[in-house]
Each structure stands twice: as C-alpha cells, then as structure tokens.
C-alpha cells in the first residue's frame, strides 16, 4: 500500500452557478464562494492493482487518526500474511499509537518502554526501526527525506485534486466527503490500473 494524507481540503460552495461552454468561450466559474470547513483524507493505493483501498476522511490528522486508518485497512483482509505500507517520514507515521497497534497485531508480550525515555518508544528513530522490522506482519517503508514523490499515492492525490476538488462545489463537509468517496468508487470501477514508472534513475543535469 502506498499511503499518504491530503489535509485541509476545503468544502467550498460557489455562490452562483457557473456559465456553461459556448462557441468561442470557455466555461466560466463564479469566483465567490462560501466556506463550509475542511476535511483530511487518508488514502491507500494498492500499487499492484491501482485500487484505492479503505479511504478515511475526518476533521483531523493525528497519530490516532492514522493508527485507526491502518487498523481499518488491515481489517479489510484479516487473513493477509503481510502488509507493506510505503509512507513518508511524518511523525504520525512513527507514533507510539502505531507501535502499539503493530505489537498487538503480532501478539508481542514485551515491554515497549516509555515515550521520550526508554525502549522501543524512546524516540522517533527507535519507533521507526521497530515499525520497519520485516519480521512483523505490518511493515512500514519510509521514503528518503525530500523524496516523498517516490510514493505513488502522491500521483493519485494530484489526480483527485485536478478531477474533483479544484473545480468542485460542496454544500458541506459531508457533501465533500460523499463526492470524494463516490469519485474513488468510480475510479476503482473504471480507471484503476498500476502506474508505469518511466523515470530511469539518471542523474539530473547540472
């Protein structure tokens, strides 16, 4: 799973309808809008099938929100022998809540330590080392610093912005969520496929 968040998505409602296409004229949109609040989306993209799996939507992006998202994702296939999540280095992706989730999933009866003081929970680095352990059923892979573009879900989130969010009009946060989930369902039915990487790893020109 290629996983990331899209935060601060605004539910903007246009005050008046736009004007449709006409000969020689592009579609024109109302520039005034009404703000109805924001939502955060947490999205998994299955890199093998291209499907969007178990998307989450809520008012915040906390360590608990991300832990709950991972738990919901794993619950979609409880019999899976291994889960691999590609994520960036955000602190919520290396949290105490996530360590405790993975430990509970593995049935590990061990002292995890104390956040900021000792053991596995001592630091972000020690938590990340535990979370990337390939012996676990749930394994996290962290993209290198300044290389979050390597995470394929970033490409898909760009499509979501272009195809729906940028030109949408939403009467509430609930409407925003409903339209986004409907778009994801449509994408999964009709457009989902693996991305084909074209970058060859050549060094950038000076």
Classify the helix fraction into a percent range: 25-40%
Shape: elongated
Number of strands: 5
pLDDT < 50 stretches: none
Helical segment count? 5
Arrangement of strands in the largest sheet:
1-2-3
User: Given the helix and strand composition, which structural class is it?
Assistant: alpha+beta
Q: How would you characterize the overall build of this protein?
A:
With 206 residues, this protein is α+β, with helices and mostly antiparallel strands. Helix content is 31%, strand content 21%. It contains 5 helices and 5 strands; from the N terminus they run βββαβααβαα. The strands form 2 sheets. A 3-stranded antiparallel sheet has the order 1-2-3. It has a two-stranded parallel ribbon with strand order 4-5. The longest helix is centred in the last third of the chain and has 18 residues, at 173-190.
In short:
By secondary structure, the protein is of the alpha+beta class.
Task: Spell out the blueprint of helices and strands.
Blueprint lengths: L1 E13 L18 E13 L6 E7 L4 H13 L7 E5 L8 H11 L17 H8 L6 E5 L10 H13 L7 H18 L16
Helix pairs in contact: 1-2
Structural features:
alpha+beta, 206 residues, two-stranded parallel ribbon, three-stranded antiparallel beta sheet, single chain
């Amino acid at each position: 799973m290629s996983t990331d968040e899209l935060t601060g998505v605004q539910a903007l409602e246009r005050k008046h309808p736009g004007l449709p296409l006409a000969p020689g004229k592009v579609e024109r949109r109302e520039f005034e809008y009404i703000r109805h609040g924001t939502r955060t989306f947490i999205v998994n993209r299955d890199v093998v099938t291209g499907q969007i799996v178990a998307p989450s939507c809520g008012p915040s992006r906390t360590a608990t929100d991300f832990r709950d998202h991972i738990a919901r994702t794993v619950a979609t296939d409880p019999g899976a022998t291994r889960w691999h999540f590609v994520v960036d280095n955000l602190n919520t992706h290396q949290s105490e809540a996530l360590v405790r989730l993975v430990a509970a999933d593995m049935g590990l009866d061990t002292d995890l330590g104390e956040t900021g003081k000792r053991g596995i929970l001592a630091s972000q680095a020690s938590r990340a080392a535990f979370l990337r352990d390939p012996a676990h059923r749930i394994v996290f892979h962290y993209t290198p610093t300044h290389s979050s573009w390597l995470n394929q879900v970033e490409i898909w989130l760009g499509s979501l912005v272009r195809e729906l969010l940028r030109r949408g009009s939403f009467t509430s946060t609930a409407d925003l969520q409903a339209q986004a989930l409907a778009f994801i369902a449509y994408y999964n039915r009709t457009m989902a496929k693996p991305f084909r990487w074209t970058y060859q790893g050549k060094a950038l020109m000076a």
